[in-house]
C-alpha cells in the first residue's frame, strides 16, 4: 500500500551533500541518531509542559521534518561509509519508537484532543514498529508497509499540530485521530502479511 516512505530515495538524494560533509567531518551514524532522539525528547517535553502554546504546535512540523532528515542521514552514513553495526541497528530502532512516543503522546494533554485516542494511536504506532522489526526475525526483511509508517505519522501529526494551532473544531481533530488509528491497524495487518509472505 502506498506510503510517504516510498519518497525516501528522492529525499535521500537531496540529503547526499549533507551526508558527505558529515562523513568528511568524522561524524558517525549513531551520533546523528542520538541527536534526533534528544531533539525529539526535548521538544516533546516542551509540548507536554506547555500544551496550550500555539508557537510550539506551529514549530512541530519543522521539528518532525528535521527528525526525518536526520533519520535518513544516519542510514546513508552507515551504508555508504561502512559504518553499519549491530549497536547502530539497535539504537536506530529503539530511538524511532522512543521519539514517536515523546513527540506524539503529549498531544493527549492538548485541550482539543480526546486523550484516549492519542494514547491508543501511540500504542498502535509502537505495535506497528515492533511488527516491522519482528518481520526481520521471521523473514530477514524489515517490514515498512503502510499506510501509516513512520513518515506518515510525522506528516499526520504535523498536520494535526497546524490544525490545533488554528482552533480547528474538536470533532474534526478527533475524527482525524480516529482515521489515523484505523490506518495504524491496517499498517500492522499489512506488516504481518509482509512478514509471512516472504520465502
TrEMBL record:
<dbReference type="Pfam" id="PF01066">
    <property type="entry name" value="CDP-OH_P_transf"/>
</dbReference>
<protein>
    <submittedName>
        <fullName>CDP-alcohol phosphatidyltransferase family protein</fullName>
    </submittedName>
</protein>
<dbReference type="InterPro" id="IPR000462">
    <property type="entry name" value="CDP-OH_P_trans"/>
</dbReference>
<keyword id="KW-0472">Membrane</keyword>
<feature type="transmembrane region" description="Helical">
    <location>
        <begin position="116"/>
        <end position="138"/>
    </location>
</feature>
<feature type="transmembrane region" description="Helical">
    <location>
        <begin position="32"/>
        <end position="50"/>
    </location>
</feature>
<keyword id="KW-0812">Transmembrane</keyword>
<dbReference type="InterPro" id="IPR043130">
    <property type="entry name" value="CDP-OH_PTrfase_TM_dom"/>
</dbReference>
<keyword id="KW-1133">Transmembrane helix</keyword>
<feature type="transmembrane region" description="Helical">
    <location>
        <begin position="159"/>
        <end position="186"/>
    </location>
</feature>
